[in-house]
Amino acid sequence: MHRGVRWVLWDVKDTLLRVRRSVGEQYCREARRAGLTLPAAEVEAAFRRAYRQHSSLHPNYGVDQGMGGQAWWAGVVYDTFSQCGVRDQALLHRLAENLYHGFSGPENWEVFPDSKPALQDCVSLGMQLGVVSNFDNRLEGILHGCGLLSHFRFLLTSERAGVAKPDPEIFQQALKLCGVPPTSVAHIGDDYVKDYLTARSLGIHGYLLDRRGGDGRPEVPPQHRLRSLDELLTRLKEDVH
Description:
two-stranded antiparallel ribbon, 241 residues, alpha/beta, 6-stranded parallel sheet, single chain
C-alpha cells in the first residue's frame, strides 16, 4: 500500500479538528467580556449573514483585493456585531482583535479522537503528509497548539496559495510540493465538491470523510467513503490495489 500512495494530503476543519463551540457562542462570550449581553441565536444568524456576504464580495480572505485573513475576519466581526446594534468603533475593533487571536490557539479547537492515530499510521508506513486547506495563515499556530503540526511536511492554506478549493490550482500547487504524480497522492476531506470531486478530477485518490454517516451522496462509491479516519488505511489498500 505504501508503495502506491506516497503522499497523503489533508483538509483540516471538520476533518482533523473542529471548533469547540459555535461561532455564535464564542462571539457572545467575547461580547460578555466587553460588558455586552447579546442573544446567541441572534449573533449566530448575524454571523452567518456577514460570513456569506464577505465570502461573496471578498473571496478567499480578499487576498486578490489586498486584504488578507486578519482584515477579512475583522470585517466579518464588525458586520456581525453591527447587525446586533453595536456601534462603538473602538469596541468593535477590540472584539475583532480578541476574536482573531482567540481562534489562533488551541483553546477554541477540538481534535477528533481518530485524527492523531490516523496521521501516525500514515507516517509509520513511510507516507509523507501535507495540508491543503481553505484556511487563513493562523493554521500553523493552531496545528502546533493542537499537537498535529509535526506530522506534516508542508501546509498549503488558501490564503498563502492565493486560490481556494474547489479551484484545482491549489491542488496543483500541492502536487508540485509533493514532487510525485497524482496517482501517488491521496486526499482526505469532508466536502464533496471542494475535497472529493476536485481531488479526483486531477487523478488524486480522493476520499470523502462522512462522520455523520448520511450525506445522501450515493454517487460516491463505498470504497471512497470514510465514516471515520480509522478506516483510512483499509480504504487506501482497496483503492490503490
